[in-house]
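Q: I'm writing a short explainer about Peptidase M14 domain-containing protein for a general audience and would like to include a description of its predicted shape. Could you first generate the structure from this sequence?
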Amino acid sequence: MTAEAYALALPTNNPASQYLGVKVVRVPTGPSTAALDELKGLISSLQLQLWTTVPTVNSHVDVEIPPSAYDTFMNSVSSILGDAGILEPVKVMHDDLGKAILDESTVPDDFHTEAQRSFATPAWFNAYHPYQDHVRWLSDLATTFPNNAKVVSSGTSLEGRSIAGINIFGSSGSGSKPAIIWHANVHAREWITSMTTEFMAYQLLSNYANSTEIKGYVDKYDFYIFPIVNPDGFVYSQTTNRMWRKNRQTPPSGSTCYGRDINRNWDSHWSDPDGASTSPCDEDYKGLAAFDAPETKQLAAFMNSKMNSTQGVKSYTDWHSYSQMFFTPYGFSCTEVPPDNEELTALAEGFTASLKEVYGTEYQYGSSCKTIYKTTGSSDDYAYDVSGVKYSFSAELRDTGSSGFVLPANQIYPSGVETWAGVKYLLANMK
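A: Of course. Here's the predicted structure. Afterward I'll give you a sentence or two in plain language.
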């Protein structure tokens, strides 16, 4: 079915138009640092947008290429790879990114008809949705399950939007059991993360009455699920620039570039070299100081308020996309090992194995530094090292690069189902 057959779910100034004709390709990097440096120089000279935050050797870079630069880029890449003896081909992820965004940004005509009374139905997971509908979805979910859920907030964004979430609790009522905290859409463009965490919230509530397994989890823990912790960036990705990553913080003095990466702004090894950028124009810009992003500061305050109460925090997970990976601490070091490493690694292995059993989806697992790249000022390291949350994880959801950030809506349901299988393993096996 074509995009024209659907009604647009996003605002009329859909950002798809600026990406019409833009291609996204995956370029292998090979073992040569010289070839990687040439490739990064080419990308910089053509002012291309990277989807790969930290390009490394023996990996790949995913990059957007407008029609005007495509021939120049591909010819130059061919020479770079040829000179380096890299035989792996360049792969096209999106032949027309604008069309992919348009397709992604639509919902079936009958969605709002079906959802006139409540958005909190299975039909929600057939499409992506605008920010204001996510807010309504949380409210509708709490209204549908009033004995086990209520809307909560982890603070307010720079532009005044609530960092809204859902608190799910069992027969003892809210606030009486150890907390499990999930953050999603930390990076604005990673839309699948909000949908996947909402799917899991729906599973917890819709199955509480008919599943002894789920009832056991909900009676044992208090869940605090925040599907969109970067609401300003998320709205900007829907209305202006689909590939926006950071929050929308005003530029520091001397710069015209907006935003902090709120997953490089936590007060955990924030000042360490590498692992984040000091340039305001970079996508992993860490800010002028730890917690100078209001979102990050308030998210940490919420976590610590639970940790320092009689509840405590049992587990924290930071949900991202894409790459299909599940991480344990640490991100700041590839040599330091957390005291609970053996147990955390076993849980990560179980998560990925349980997830794979559903559709055969392969996830890698391990410490984030070793598995993907070094990060400083990250939330999972902060949760583990500073707040003292033993079961601290982060994840990269679907896919491995076929669609990347612009994952088709028909992947929402399978992403939710398989991730939920992995999470149930964690819930059953955390001590």
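A: For your explainer, you could say: The CA atoms of residues 257 and 300 lie 25 Å apart.
Q: Perfect, that's easy to follow.
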